[in-house]
Amino acid sequence: MFSSFSRRHFAKLAGLAALGLTASPTEAAESKAKQGKDRHAPAPFPKDFVWGTATSSYQIEGAVKEDGRGPSIWDTFSHTPGKIGDGTNGDRANEHYHRYKEDVRLIKDLGVKAYRFSIAWPRVFPEGTGKPNPKGLDFYNRLLDELLANGIEPYATLYHWDLPQALQDKVGGWQSSETSKAFAEYSGYVAERLSDRVKYFFTLNEAGRFLNFGYGWGIDAPGLKLPTAELNQARHHTVLGHGLAVQAIRASARKGTKVGIAENIAACVPAFATPEHIRATEMATRELNAGFLGVILEGKYTDGFLAYSGKDAPKFTADELKIIGSKNDFVGLNIYAPQFYIAASDKKPGWSVLPFPASFPHMNSEWLRIGPEVIYWAPRLAAKVWNIENIFITENGTSSEDKLTADGKVNDLDRISFLRNYLLQLQRATAEGVPVRGYFLWSLMDNFEWIFGFEKRFGVYHVDFETQARVPKLSAAFYRDVVAKNAIGV
């Protein structure tokens, strides 16, 4: 019987069932009522929950040679043949530098009240340090004024990967503590001049990405493949730069200014939710994040990290650890996909990483595995492991094929499905008291997606990179509805 029962037969029956044709109207109504009665949806998001969207400077601004901006490592890298998938670069990108007023209207149309953007270090200090460029900061003054005039609170990121090329050339970028000091100088300068309107500053964005991919594996700018010992030392200089920047911001910014980091946490999920697997996942979360989040939030490297690194461990002083461990007012977590599923183990260290089966589902980007539960577990575990009181989901979203229809629309149902399921898990987290204070959708609009160029589209606004026309996708309407309701319906 089942050998002749095709998928087409199954789909036909499923369709009839959806129309209620396999049961009488009375039976269907009773079933629906029962389902509604048994359904337990999480409470809505907290009343003061911050809804926002996000971008970064190199990915959208363009105007790379205007008003005194110096070159960044991504300008150099993207112009190196073979480094970007579609052979493009960020020279023009979304022309946000000139179209920022139009883009602020897009943000406002989403109904969100917050916008996370990044400041291009080489616009403000073209050489990375030394003499600042007033015209560079002028752009961000104009942007801030436009945001505030439209009722949108700015959240500024000071480093989203566009290191001034001069620092890479002179001292090797993050290979040197001179870059850590230069970053603090730049951060204090910006905070002093913008904290009258910016209350939240993020220091570094995704150190785990730009350091490993850029200095360890040669995938991102500046394209280096350092030996492990040198990579670990560069990692140490990166977190030192964060700590020095925190101190500089506190010394220079207006009273009440908040500062923290945005990191792509090594997101661990228990294989399933039994006490032993949850405890194992807590241990794994601490150890797998020891090189960045851990040392920042604990002010020390774990014994496991130092033992694993052995002779390749970074060299550091007690004073440096104290600087690195400077208090953060909040922690931003960039969460896309589960990176590790964890099971308890009776062998040291008490946990094991489970392999992903080949059939594990993923989105348009193959690295983006679909695991909505990660946005529940990652902040829950981080809050528990490091006693964090304020968490922002600083990035979450997905790429999609985003094909334009004949009438110029984008019906990105896959993105809507992704967001619905992830946000429902986030709503579950906040309903259980996990201290997530806000969510920033990545991204406002399609942009230069690093090594993929313009091939991968993450925006809720479609961008024609020839005409620069912005068109809202169906997901923009979906997100607007979530923001308006402050909840995900089920």
Fold topology:
Elements: H1 7-18, H2 25-38, E1 50-54, H3 57-60, H4 73-78, H5 96-110, E2 114-118, H6 121-124, H7 134-149, E3 153-159, H8 165-171, H9 177-194, E4 200-205, H10 207-216, H11 228-252, E5 258-263, E6 268-270, H12 275-288, H13 290-298, H14 303-309, H15 318-324, E7 330-334, E8 340-344, E9 351-354, H16 374-386, E10 391-396, H17 413-431, E11 436-442, E12 461-463, E13 470-472, H18 474-485
Parallel strand pairs: 1-2, 1-11, 2-3, 3-4, 4-5, 5-7, 6-8, 7-10, 10-11
Antiparallel strand pairs: 8-9, 12-13
Rg result: 23 Å
The total of helices stands at 18
* The CATH superfamily title: Glycosidases
Major beta sheet summary = 8 strands, parallel, barrel
**Roughly what percent helix?**
40-55%
CATH topology heading = TIM Barrel
Q: How many structural domains?
A: 1
Molecular structure report:
- With 490 residues, the chain is α/β, with parallel strands linked by helices.
- It has one domain: Alpha-Beta Barrel (TIM Barrel).
- Helix content is 43%, strand content 13%.
- The chain is built from 18 helices and 13 strands.
- The chain has helices at residues 7-18, 25-38, 57-60, 73-78, 96-110, 121-124, 134-149, 165-171, 177-194, 207-216, 228-252, 275-288, 290-298, 303-309, 318-324, 374-386, 413-431, 474-485; strands at 50-54, 114-118, 153-159, 200-205, 258-263, 268-270, 330-334, 340-344, 351-354, 391-396, 436-442, 461-463, 470-472.
- Strands 1-2-3-4-5-7-10-11 form an eight-stranded parallel β-barrel, surrounded by six helices. Strands 6-8-9 form a three-stranded mixed beta sheet. Strands 12-13 form a two-stranded antiparallel sheet.
- Helix 12 (275-288) crosses helix 16 (374-386).
- The chain is globular.
- The model is unreliable at 1-38 (pLDDT under 50).
